[in-house]
Amino acid sequence: MKELLRTNDMVKLSWLEALLADAGIETLVLDQHTSVLEGSIGILPRRLMVSDQDYQRARHVMSEAGEETSL
Questions:
Q1: Predicted local distance difference test score (pLDDT) of residue 28
Q2: What is each CA distance from 42 to 6, 9, 10, 50, in whole angstroms?
Q3: Which distant-in-sequence residues (6+ apart) come within 8 Å of 1 by Cβ?
Q4: CA gap 28, 2 in Å, rounded
Q5: CA 48 from chain center: how many Å?
Q6: Is 52 in contact with 7 (CB distance < 8 Å)?
Q7: What pTM does this model have?
Q8: Angle CA 5–50–18, to nearest 5
Q9: Domains in the chain, start-ordered, CATH in brackets?
Q10: DSSP-assigned states of every residue in 9-53
Q11: CA 20 to CA 30: how far, in whole Å?
Q12: How confident is the model at residue 59, as a pLDDT?
């Protein structure tokens, strides 16, 4: 798995999950439960992950939508 993005913005994260799902790319969000355990104050960013095989295509889909990856 490779990290595409780290963000505290849940709306953006949800939108990117839908965008990538529409392109047939499965995603995994890491650290969402850790953030909840820390009090749900949004300090800990969540990581949007994709498989190694889908990484370049996911970056391209995000780029076409005007989004930048954090890495």
A1: 96
A2: 12, 8, 9, 22
A3: 28, 49, 50, 51, 52
A4: 10
A5: 3
A6: no
A7: 0.82
A8: 75
A9: 2-64 (3.30.70.790)
A10: -HHHHHHHHHHHHHTT--EEEESHHHHHHTTSSS-SPEEEEE-TT
A11: 16
A12: 95
Lookup: tokens for 64: 């076409």
User: Which bin fits 7, alpha (ψ -120 to 50), beta or left (φ > 0)?
Assistant: beta
Angle at 6 between CA 51 and CA 16, to 5 degrees: 65
pLDDT in the model for residue 11: 92
pLDDT tens sequence across 23-70: 999 999 998 766 555 565 667 889 999 999 999 999 999 999 998 766
The separation between the first and the last C-alpha atoms of the chain, rounded to the nearest angstrom, is: 14
